[in-house]
Amino acid sequence: DTEVTQTPKHLVMGMTNKKSLKCEQHMGHRAMYWYKQKAKKPPELMFVYSYEKLSINESVPSRFSPECPNSSLLNLHLHALQPEDSALYLCASSQDYGRDKNIQYFGAGTRLSVL
Amino acid sequence: DQQVKQNSPSLSVQEGRISILNCDYTNSMFDYFLWYKKYPAEGPTFLISISSIKDKNEDGRFTVFLNKSAKHLSLHIVPSQPGDSAVYFCAGIQGAQKLVFGQGTRLTINP
User: Fold this and answer.
1) What is the tens place of the pLDDT at every residue in A77-111?
2) What is each CA distance from A1 to A28, A83, A91, A110, B69, in whole angstroms?
């Protein structure tokens, strides 16, 4: 089973709203990731959690706030977003830290529209 | 600075023939490469990987070749099937955890 589950699949929010994206995996993976993907572009890394600790933040604006409540769950809290933040948000997980264990498995993504 | 480049935005191949997708990279610190396949409205699906200490890795219909001196890798799919129609991303691993993706190549398999 290589399933990463993301909810919701679609989200529409206003610029003053607060919402959260959720990601869950039950593969025992210890690294989890958030990516942002715009149309016709490759995924861009936002955050990496390794053993439930934030290890990489790719200079993401503070209106995006990640949280890793436990090793299976990853949240992305959204507040005061801009229309240009509309994109597909992908969650991924990998077994562990280190290159030969870094096959990342992706969820189906949340399609976010900011009005 | 685009460290991973897929110079062909699209490729069209006849069913049953070989599909060859190409990828070039500039970062000689990459030590592992992965290929992902992506259907619309889905997340990328891992296909095959190769370590920089190897020059070939094969898994069923998929073979990846790595030419380190040319900083070039390619994915061969043979025989190509209609279900292979998707966007294919090449990615290099920089450091311990960061995947750097190419722009993707849209592969269309024609019946």
Assistant:
1) 999 999 999 999 999 999 886 666 678 999 999 99
2) 11, 36, 16, 21, 37
Across-strand partners of A76? Answer: A21, A66
- Measuring CA to CA, how many Å separate A92 from each of A49, A65, B43, B71? 10, 17, 9, 27
- Place B31 in a pLDDT band, splitting at 50, 70 and 90: confident
Instruction: Say which residue the tokens 């934030």 belong to.
Output: A54
Instruction: State the residue for tokens 């460290």.
Output: B3
pLDDT digits (tens, 9 = 90+) for A13-43: 999 899 999 999 999 999 999 999 998 889 9
Tell me which of A53, A54, A89, A102 to substitute to probe the interface with B (most B C-beta atoms closer than 10 Å): A102
Q: Which residue from A6, A99, A105 is facing B46, i.e. has the nearest CB?
A: A105
Please tell me what DSSP assigns to residue A83: G
CB A94 within 8 A of CB A105: yes
Residue A84 β-bridge partners:
none
